[in-house]
């Protein structure tokens, strides 16, 4: 399955958003996720099925003013 | 000191966490500032680097309140989605809501701001809206549930200070019971003191400290200015006048002509 992860194209054989995060090395990292511009809470990641062409954003704490 | 959504703050200093020369200098600046709130943001995280995790640990060690922002958002949808993501990561209902409407000045899109504030307030957020000093916009923001207003002093990162003293004074006078924060544009501690002398409750700044030659010293200077301005406000300043009025008594002056 071909996906866009933080703007970069990735090929991943995963079924859900939770599986994608594990496969991409996020582990237990403090992150928030959105799929195709819609927020997906952490509790819903295991049940959130991904489809070819989905665009995923994975965000973490960063400096801000 | 007014509460911010029921949360009392030790002081009115809200300090940003961006642009410091190093994490150690950031931490030292916060220590010397005594700031009670740190603003933070969200950005893309790599599964390999996980840079955001180290930053998060640093921020938690500061022991201050966390105010996430929606910096860089240009639409209602983008800002609302970012706010939801921030609430989950930072575990706070507070959100510094920015909906940018113009690139050169980073002026807020006040129409989008009111709409985003309405949506987020209905969803349980406690919104700190980055706005202008416009009274009508302020009234709309309060109407949709905001309990704090954060007018700009001048464009973000400009260091120009308080560009519209009249408008900021009018905002204070119109909403005497609303916590008001000068957000953006402050470049010098004297400008922060002026904001507090106007009766503002807090200041929020970043660049003036982070880009100073000695950020920690500048942070402390702002803290002192904040304290001085607040004390001056409470001391009931004299009314200015157009003409001179001698301060030394004329009675008893020697006749030496």
Give a structural overview.
The complex is a heterodimer of chains A (65) and B (257). With 65 residues, chain A is mainly β. Chain A has a single domain, classed as Beta-grasp domain (Ubiquitin-like (UB roll)), CATH 3.10.20.30. Chain A is built from 1 helix and 5 strands, in the order E-E-H-E-E-E. Chain A has one helix spanning 17-23; strands at 2-5, 8-11, 32-35, 38-40, 55-63. Chain A has a 5-stranded mixed beta sheet with strand order 2-1-5-3-4, with no helix packed on it. Chain A starts with a strand and ends with a strand. The mean pLDDT of chain A is 95. With 257 residues, chain B is an alpha/beta fold. Chain B has helices spanning 23-33, 51-62, 76-90, 110-122, 135-143, 165-174, 189-197, 207-210, 215-234, and strands spanning 13-16, 37-44, 65-68, 94-97, 100-102, 107-108, 126-131, 150-151, 181-183, 202-205. In chain B, strand 7, helix 5 and strand 8 form a beta-alpha-beta unit. In chain B, helix 1 packs parallel to helix 2 (51-62) and helix 1 packs parallel to helix 9. The longest helix of chain B has 20 residues, at 215-234. At the A-B interface, strand 3 and strand 5 of A face strand 2, helix 2 and helix 3 of B. Strand 5 (55-63) of chain A pairs antiparallel with strand 2 of chain B, so a sheet runs across the interface.
Summary?
The complex is a heterodimer of chains A (65) and B (257). Helix content of chain A is 11%, strand content 37%.
Sequence of secondary-structure elements of chain A = EEHEEE
| Number of beta-strand segments of chain A | 5
Strand content of chain A: 35-45%
Q: What portion of residues of chain A is helical? A: 10-25%
Count of the separate structural domains of chain A: 1
From the N-terminal CA to the C-terminal CA of chain B, the straight-line distance is 55 Å
**H/I helix tally of chain B:** 9
Mean pLDDT of chain A, as a whole number?
Answer: 95
What is the end-to-end distance of chain A?
A: 38 Å
Low-confidence blocks of residues of chain B: none
Biggest β-sheet: strands ordered side by side in the sheet of chain B:
3-2-1-10-9
Give a quick account of the main beta sheet of chain A: strands, pairing sense, barrel closure: 5 strands, mixed
CATH superfamily of chain A: Beta-grasp domain
Structural class of chain A: mainly beta
Assign a percent range to the helix content of chain B: 40-55%
Q: Pairing-aware structural class of the strands and helices of chain B?
A: alpha/beta
Instruction: Specify the CATH architecture of chain A.
Output: Roll
Greatest contact between two chains: A-B, 26 and 39 residues
Query: What integer is the average pLDDT of chain B?
Result: 95
Q: What is the C-alpha radius of gyration of chain B, as a whole number of Å? A: 20 Å
The biggest beta sheet of chain B is recorded as: 5 strands, parallel
